[in-house]
Every structure is written in C-alpha cells, then in structure tokens.
Amino acid sequence: MKLHQIDGYIQSIYLVEYRYGLLLLDGCCRADIPILLNFISDKLNRPVKDLKLVVVTHMHPDHAGAAHRLRKLTGCYIAAANVKGQWYQGLDGALMHWTDLLLANWVARRMKKTRQNLWYDAKLKPDYLLDDQERLPGFPEWHALSTQGHTDRDLSLYHPNSGQVYIADLMVRVKGRYIPPFPVFYPKRYRQSINKIIALSPKSLLLAHGGEIVPTPEDYQYLLDKSPTTPTTHWRSVKTKFKRAFSAT
C-alpha cells in the first residue's frame, strides 16, 4: 500500500495505491477532478480507470462534490454510510446545500484560490452502503467507522495494519489547535465519535483540513473540552447573530 496526500482545492486528497487498483478516501470537490486525474495519469503513470472506489464520508462540497463525476469518468464505484434518506432533504435541505456551497467558496477565497464551479448534485446515489466496522468493498484492509456528529452520516476510514485513520472533518486544525468542525448537528454523537477514535489508539490521524497528525492526550482533551453541548448549526448561528443585533439596539 502507498498512501498519497495531494493538495486539493480547499482540502487534502488521500489516494491509496495498490497494484490492483486505487482507493480515494473521500469524494473531494468538483474542482479537484482534474487535479486527481492528472495525478493518476502523470504521477502514477496509471490509467484513470484504475480508480476503483470513492468513499463519500459525508455530503459537504469538499467531501462529495466530485463523486458522481468521477464515477462517470472512470467507472469507479461510490460507497457511503448506511443511513436512510438524503442529507439535503426538502426545502431546508436545499437551503443548507446552497449555504454549504457558499461556505466552501468563502474558504477558497480565504485561501486565495481562483474561483471555481463547485456545484454538485445534492442527492448522492452510492453503489455501496457501509455499516460500522464494515470492510471496504475491494479494499478489505480498510474498515469503515461510523463517526457521526458533524452530520448524521459521517464515516472515518481505518487501516489497522498501519494504524492510520482518515477522519475527514471530525476535527480541524486552527491556529495550531485541534477543534470541533462547524457545524456539529449532533453533539452527543460527536463526543462518542471522538472517544471511539481515542479508544483505537491510532498511530496517526489523516485530516481533511490539517494533514497527517499524531495528537497528544492533551490535544484530545482540548478537543473534548471544546466540543459543543448543544448543536452548532447554520440556522442557530443566524438566530444568535440576530439576537445579538437586537440586544445591541
């Protein structure tokens, strides 16, 4: 196994290389498609059809945005968490999808990236649905872990042989500290997910935003201390800002 970390549009891309095929640990941004395909063909000297499986850890633009297009271009399969329904459902879901796209564009501006089209289908159509602890189809060395909290369908991907875990957005690095992501829809599940990762005693964690890290016990404790006890979501943030604005008048 070779694990390749590639600089994506607004997040790290993790591509796992085997002789028999390539595994993409997350669904990336739409803007990452040429970056990834060029890496496969130019750096690895392999046909893009060698991409066999893309795992979508959750439905945000930098984790699901390229999945459908990659399947069309390469013939790969898509795997996601075995959770009923779609994340972006109904009118609220449509509004949240647009909000998440705006947030992704805002992050890109902060990173001084050229503006790109990040639009993607809000409804995922996976080929495989993964339960907690299930091995990835075609790549049995990797295990799917249910690590909900950020959303209702977050996955982490564990490789026991190396002790590495890709945890997507379970934590993010800001000013040298590891903190919870935004949003956290399910605080109780989120803390359970952090404790689940701690219990694995992994050798390293692979972050979508922060690279490969080896957290200390103090890092984990800081993260738990900063974990919200009530949901931190888009709508709650808007309501809080309105309340502050009215209280100041």
Automatic annotation (TrEMBL):
**Residues covered by the Metallo-beta-lactamase domain:** 10-209
Stated name of the protein? Zn-dependent hydrolase
Pfam (any one): Lactamase_B
**Organism of this sequence:** Photobacterium lutimaris
Instruction: List, alphabetically, the InterPro entries matched.
Output: Metallo-B-lactamas, NDM-1-like, RibonucZ/Hydroxyglut_hydro
In its UniProt record, a GO molecular function of this protein is: hydrolase activity
UniProt keywords, alphabetically? Hydrolase
- Domain of life, per UniProt, equals Bacteria
